[in-house]
Specification:
The structure holds two protein chains of two kinds. Chain A is mostly helical. Helix content of chain A is 78%, strand content 0%. The longest helix of chain A is centred in the C-terminal third of the chain and has 31 residues. Chain B is mainly alpha-helical. Chain B contains 27 helices and two strands. In chain B, strands 1-2 form a two-stranded antiparallel sheet. The radius of gyration of chain B is 30 Å and the shape is globular. Classes of the chains: A mainly alpha, B mainly alpha. At the A-B interface, helix 1 of A face helix 26 and helix 27 of B.
């Protein structure tokens, strides 16, 4: 459980300080896995299968998210010739 | 077959509206006039049994229009002697006017629009007079109002015409509102809008003079007054002359303005139960015919003379209603439809011949140049001013003059008003004739004679204006009462307080004498001593009177002062709408908040994540705090 917490916070912080979008995606993955780990741990602790089922969902969702995210990043790179997320601020209000 | 009479003009209007642009003028004329001609022919066929006896009635239920609870209104048509008289006038005179219009409007670019509106008008008018329930009648009533608006403003490129059209629409709307309230009240008390049921129930529901029925009758009278341009809602009719002349002939002389008369005729039982309203009808008629007659005396525009004359003649009809002379009013209505349509179309022929000049002082001397128009116009004028024996106007108007006195509801004042009106009528009519056709040639235009399509309807109407009078002759001259016998199954016969042949002779002789005196004065005024009359009219008082009469007794100025100006002033005061302020303030606040929030949308992704994280932290801490503390 602590490991899960540490992993989550690590992912969060790297997300906040990284500017490269690939790394931001990576840290999202880390956070997702942290959450998944928390589910697994909880399910084994209470001997309930629900948490493992939940992890399956998270896994498949993460796969989808990565594919969409990578496609977006690819498009952005075509447009901006950069992977810097701060460059992509043209939608400023 | 009855439904075909209104359906044909409606159908033709529909065709012309949808396909009018792609049809050439000949096709448009054939469709428009053809539908009218067939409708007129059907009227004649259906009317044949009526000639044998006025009792005959045709009722046709087409379909149920709407049904709600106990209320149901059907598209029901009903033809009896009264509506037949109207249908006959509408289809027959309407047909002639349509034929005439093909000549009059020949060079107009909006040829098919004109005929579409005309046909639509005829359809709505027929629906009005054939309706068996008041709701359908009201439908036709509004329909003719709409068409009147469309046709007055037909030449919409001139803003003045649009103004006249709006004025006509709004002023009649005042009357229509009163009428709508009357219908609501009738429905509330009787539970039906079927005319026959209401007429049957009314005497049981209300005693004569009951305040409810008096109120209803007065409200109905309000509707009639608006449509028929009687005092105090008469101001729209002279301005309505902005429309093309055939429109004036059809709508503002022969048919629509008589819708008010029809309404009162249809609901005459209610008026008999409300003596006050009946007196009101008579007084309105008497006053209107005098005021309008005076105004007609000083107009310079030939069509405005005829407009005031129409108001005045409808005043006669109202007077006849008021004294209970129902059939006399309808009789005058029919003859008036003939001769006033004739006069308007004659005036139209003159106007076209003079290249759209309407000022009589710029005409003059047209007798030699337009002899055919002169003769038919003279016949119409003779009929309008009721020259004895040979004109229909004499028989119909003298009947009213005589009955205004001798009927049980009659009064000497009515008689004086009627006979003074006859004098005025003769004077202004022949002033118009003399100014237009006699005297020196005042214009350098060379008039061109109108074509056959315009002249033939004029000849037919001239014939009608002369012959139509002979179906009803007074006691003193043969006593023929075809027309009133025919109507008496629908409308009660007039009750006389005394029958005196000597008095009737006196009245007729006096009326005839005054007519000739009026013509003579007009002759002196215009032809013999125009200089003397000019000096006379330059006197201060006469100038003031002339100005007053010219403006139609300054009713327009009065209404402007009383209603229009205060309204405009209020509107101007409220230009920055008070209530709207609340909403604009609300919008401002929202906009302001939006601007603040828009700043936070920096486009920097990491700030957004930061926001999400902070939000999550705050929510989580609040939750934890709530659970553990």
């Amino acid at each position: 459980m602590t490991l899960a917490g540490i992993l989550f916070v690590l992912g969060l912080i790297s997300m906040l300080i990284r500017r490269n979008m690939i790394f931001m995606l990576l840290s999202v993955e880390i956070m997702l896995n942290a959450a998944g780990l928390a589910f697994i741990v909880a399910s084994s602790h209470w001997a309930q299968p629900d948490g493992q089922v939940m992890f399956m969902f998270i896994l498949s969702m993460a796969a989808a998210e990565v594919s969409v995210g990578l496609a977006l990043v690819l498009q952005l790179y075509h447009q901006l010739k950069s992977l810097d997320s701060d460059e992509a601020s043209r939608m400023k209000g | 077959m009855l439904f075909l009479i209104p359906a044909l003009p409606f159908f033709s209007a529909l065709v012309l509206i949808l396909a009018g642009r792609s049809l050439n003028k000949a096709a448009v004329s054939v469709i428009a006039c053809g539908s009218m001609g067939i409708a007129a022919a059907i009227t004649l066929v259906l009317g044949l049994p009526f000639i044998q006896s006025g009792e005959h009635i045709i009722v046709q239920h087409l379909w149920t229009w709407m049904q709600a609870g106990s209320f149901s209104a059907g598209i029901d048509l009903r033809l009896d002697a009264l509506s037949l008289a109207f249908v006959f006038v509408i289809t027959f005179v309407g047909f002639l006017i349509h034929v005439y219009s093909t000549g009059y409007m020949a060079e107009d670019a909006d040829y098919s629009r004109f005929f579409a509106c005309m046909n639509l008008f005829v359809g709505a008018m027929l629906l009005l007079v054939l309706a068996d329930n008041l709701l359908l009648l009201y439908f036709g009533w509004e329909g003719v109002g709409l068409c009147s608006y469309l046709l007055i403003g037909f030449w919409y490129k001139d803003p003045a015409n649009g103004y006249a059209a709006r004025k006509a629409f709004i002023v009649t709307r005042v009357g229509d509102t009163a009428m709508a309230i009357a219908l609501f009240m009738l429905f509330q008390y009787t539970g039906t809008l079927q005319i026959q049921q209401i007429l049957d129930q009314a005497p049981q529901l209300w005693a004569a003079g009951n305040s409810t029925i008096v109120l209803i009758a007065f409200l109905l009278l309000g509707g009639a007054v608006g449509k028929s341009a009687q005092l105090p809602l008469q101001t729209w009719l002279p301005d309505a002359m902005a429309g093309p002349t055939p429109v004036s002939a059809l709508i503002h002389a022969a048919t629509m303005v008589t819708a008010g008369v029809y309404l009162i005729a249809r609901t005459h039982v209610l008026f008999e139960l409300a003596p006050a309203a009946q007196t009101g009808v008579a007084v309105i008629g008497a006053v209107t015919l005098l005021l309008a007659g005076c105004s007609a005396l000083v107009q310079t525009d030939i069509k405005r003379v005829l407009a005031y004359s129409t108001i005045s003649q409808i005043g006669y009809m109202f007077l006849a209603w008021g004294v209970g002379a129902w059939s006399a009013a309808i009789f005058h209505l029919v003859t008036h439809a003939f001769f006033k349509a004739l006069l308007f179309m004659g005036a139209g022929a003159v106007i076209v011949a003079m290249h759209h000049e309407q000022d009589m002082f710029k005409m003059g001397g047209l007798r030699k140049q337009l002899p055919a128009v002169f003769w038919v116009f003279l016949i119409g004028s003779a009929s309008l001013s009721a020259i004895p024996f040979i004109t229909s106007g004499f028989y119909s108007k003298d009947q009213i003059v005589w009955l205004a006195w001798s009927s049980v509801y009659g009064h000497t004042f009515y008689w004086i008003a009627a006979i003074t009106g006859a004098f005025l009528t003769a004077m202004y009519t022949f002033r118009m004739v003399f100014l237009t056709f006699y005297g020196p040639k005042a214009s350098h235009h060379t008039p061109h004679a109108p074509g056959n399509s315009m002249m033939i309807p004029l000849y037919i109407l001239a014939l009608c204006s002369t012959l139509a009078g002979f179906v009803e002759l007074p006691h003193t001259m043969g006593h023929v009462t075809l027309f009133s016998d025919w109507l008496q199954h629908v409308l009660p016969a007039v009750q006389l307080q005394q029958e005196s042949t000597a008095l009737e002779w006196t009245s007729q002789l006096l009326a005839a004498g005054l007519t000739f005196l009026g013509i003579y004065i007009a002759w002196v005024w215009v032809i013999e001593r125009p200089d003397g009359m000019l000096r006379f009219s330059q006197m201060p008082f006469m100038r003031w009177l002339r100005k007053l009469w010219f403006s139609g007794w300054a009713f327009d100025a009065l209404y402007d002062e009383m209603l229009v100006h205060p309204f405009v002033r209020t509107a101007r005061m409220n230009r920055r709408d008070m209530i709207d302020r609340i909403y604009t303030t609300l919008a401002r606040i929202t906009e302001w908040l939006h601007n603040i929030l828009a700043r936070t949308q920096s486009g920097l992704l990491r700030w957004y994540i930061m926001g999400v994280v902070l939000g999550a932290v705050v929510i989580l801490s609040v939750l934890i705090w709530r659970v553990y503390v």
